[in-house]
Amino acid sequence: MSKIYKLLLKQGIGKPAVPCVEEGVFVKCGQCIATADGLGADLHASVSGTVIQVTPEAIQLQGEKSEDIEFEPIPAGTIEERIQSAGIVGMGGAGFRLG
């Protein structure tokens, strides 16, 4: 049985992240599903599944049970670009924007 997961686009201060997936698309666990718009961090899928709804507030996924989790490699680039694309944030949720 699959579960519905609601991933909020506004994770802290700053603007909500901008979705980069559409309804009906299958996403893998760890895949970027929304990009930061200014201050903040990119949002990544916490489960593999199908995007069932995209709203200005959230992305909903119908998760699928997966025994084998395979993450996409972080793209090449400067250390700053790699930190940003990985969605790394501070313990208080602060996003990192260097430069």
Cα radius of gyration in angstroms? 14 Å
CATH class: Mainly Beta
Number of strands: 7
Task: Describe the strand arrangement of the main beta sheet, using strand numbers.
Answer: 1-7-6-3
Distance between the amino and carboxyl termini? 45 Å
Question: Strand portion, in percent?
Answer: 25-35%
Largest sheet: 4 strands, antiparallel
Q: What would you say the CATH architecture is?
A: Beta Barrel
Based on Cα principal axes, name the global outline. globular
Low-confidence stretches: none
**Multimerization status:** single chain
Structural class, please? Answer: mainly beta
The domain count comes to: 1
Q: How many helical elements?
A: 1
Q: Provide the helix percentage.
A: under 10%
Order of helices and strands: EEEEEEEH
CATH topology: OB fold (Dihydrolipoamide Acetyltransferase, E2P)
Mean pLDDT: 81
Describe the structure.
With 99 residues, the protein is mainly beta. The chain has a single domain, classed as OB fold (Dihydrolipoamide Acetyltransferase, E2P) (Beta Barrel), CATH 2.40.50. Helices cover 8% and strands 27% of the residues. It has one helix spanning 79-86, and strands spanning 4-8, 18-19, 26-27, 32-35, 43-44, 49-54, 58-63. Strands 1-7-6-3 form a 4-stranded antiparallel β-sheet, with no helix packed on it. The chain has a 3-stranded antiparallel β-sheet with strand order 2-4-5, with no helix packed on it. Strand 6 (49-54) and strand 7 (58-63) form a beta hairpin. The N and C termini lie far apart (45 Å). The model has no long low-confidence stretch (mean pLDDT 81).
